Amino acid sequence: MKRIIFGIVSLLSAVTILSSCHKLDLQPTSELLADQYPTTAAQYTSASGPIYIALRGDYALSYFFTQSASTDESVLPTFGSNWLDGYKYQELHRHTWTKDNAWINSTWTYLSNIIGTANQTIYVLQSAPAGTAKTQGMAELKTMRALAYFMMMDNYGSVPLDTLYGSIQTKANASRSQVFNYIESELKTSIPYLKTTVGTSTYGLPTKYLAYSILAKMYLNAAVYTGTGRYDDCIAACDQIISSGLYSIEPMSSYLQMFYPTNGPSAKEFIFAIPFDATTTSGNMYYARYDLNRNQGIRYLYAGSNPGSYTDPIMNQNTGNGLVNSMPSGPRMTTNEYYANFDDPNDVRNKQWLTGAQYWQDGKPLMVSTTNKGYDQFYTGSNAAGSYVYALNLTPLGSKVRSGTNSDFDLGNDEIAWNTGYRNIKFYPDYTNTINRNQNNDVPLFRYSDIILMKAEAILRGGAPTSGATALSLVNQIKSNRTTSAALTSISLDGIYSERCKEFAWEAWHRNDMIRFGKYENSWGLGKTNADTYRRLFPIPTVAFQTNSKLVQNPGY
């Protein structure tokens, strides 16, 4: 079973309708009473559907950009006037954002919506019949709300603890430590009632191991959040997951497949993932979108001749008369600083990148047909419209744009510009969807490899080793499943940081990592030199102050 689709039952639909209408003159033909429904675990899952829909809503867009494009992991420069978009990408890249940045605004709205949806669902279901199903269902909802609050705390610091649906009183910010304590308490209270089953029946749903994963991540970052390290607590939370024996590290042969459009409950490492379905939802539209070239459809040639039918070498899927049969998107690329972590030629994780010369399956170079002016906008010869065919070669981003472009963030509007930058294709393109750019790739929030590396880092930061494991043995447990190179003989914090860069590229954890390792103020990419430490928190956006005048802005903004 590849996909899990959460339904919205009549109970919650009725609440939404009644909250927006003053009077209904319709005579009901059936009756669903709060003290009669839901009563089973399956019914609670169905009734809880809106919170999972809310989580899926903007994770692959706004949340991804705030976590990745504010770091050295990814950047979306401008190409002439393409993707200028109110400078929202440039501001993230250079740490010059304000409280009006569109991505920061929409991320706040996204996370607030998850919390509000959870509050509403908990309120509606509190009158349901008592029993094991209710206790478990409420624990799941509170775990999801805790996850959203963790993301809010991580990004915005002190935020309102508003957990009562229907209250007309706005709340001021709680301190970051207070939010931390609230999340910790909610998770610890929920854990005894959460499921321990792992597989299709719980895929995309909160289990006991999601709760422990959130706690582990919180404890690892506790020195950032509260000023006090909690490394032994991080190790203890990791051990709860490790000792379950329910997860394992994917071998080299299946590492990349974890992120394919065909991924799902069979992934050995997925502790919690967001299911996406291109046919029934908005789909994983931005996160997994193929970022090789621009929205001009197929324009590739076999050395100047039609390639005919092409079979993709990784997915082994026929793609028709070109590389992709859907519409590519804006070319997000990585910086040289981030790509420098991929320094092991025998590592399977190198294959998540498109770099250098590109070839067809039979080894022939992938050719592109354009014009002299189309290839180089600064062409000064006498035949600007003349045909120009070249072998596609992706070049590193560098630190400076080409002379003559419109701004110092503009790569240009020609083939040279469009072929600049190494592209990540970890969440591999979905060729089964020919209608739009939606993707079927599910996105993991927590993987087992993260648990292993968190424990290793916590030990290096002063936590006590357990179960005979050392930081080195834990890191080598990952390495042995990712590369044929020899095992490491020593490990440092910088080594763990580099390993996390390799392992979790494009998985929305890099901002969190850079802050914890003290690297968020570094310089990188296209003119990122700002070292303001207050930017470890995003500003509370304008949209929040419009509805809550009690909020206090984060320092520096």
Number of domains: 2
Kindly name the structural category: mainly alpha
Please list the strands of the largest sheet in the order they lie side by side: 2-5-6
Major sheet: size, sense and barrel closure? 3 strands, antiparallel
Number of helices in the DSSP assignment:
19
Low-confidence stretches: 1-32, 285-328
CATH topology of the largest domain: Serine Threonine Protein Phosphatase 5, Tetratricopeptide repeat
Shape descriptor reads globular
Q: CATH architecture of the largest domain, please?
A: Alpha Horseshoe
Family: Belongs to the SusD family.
Domain RagB/SusD: 268-557
Subcellular location: Cell outer membrane
GO cellular component, one term: cell outer membrane
Please characterize this protein's 3D structure.
It comes from Mucilaginibacter robiniae. Its main location: membrane. With 557 residues, the chain is mainly alpha-helical. The protein has 2 domains: 376 residues, Alpha Horseshoe (Serine Threonine Protein Phosphatase 5, Tetratricopeptide repeat), CATH 1.25.40; 100 residues, no CATH class. Helix content is 36%, strand content 6%. It contains 19 helices and 9 strands. Strands 2-5-6 form a 3-stranded antiparallel sheet. Helix 6 packs antiparallel against helix 7. The chain starts with 9 loop residues before the first helix and ends in a 12-residue tail after the last helix.
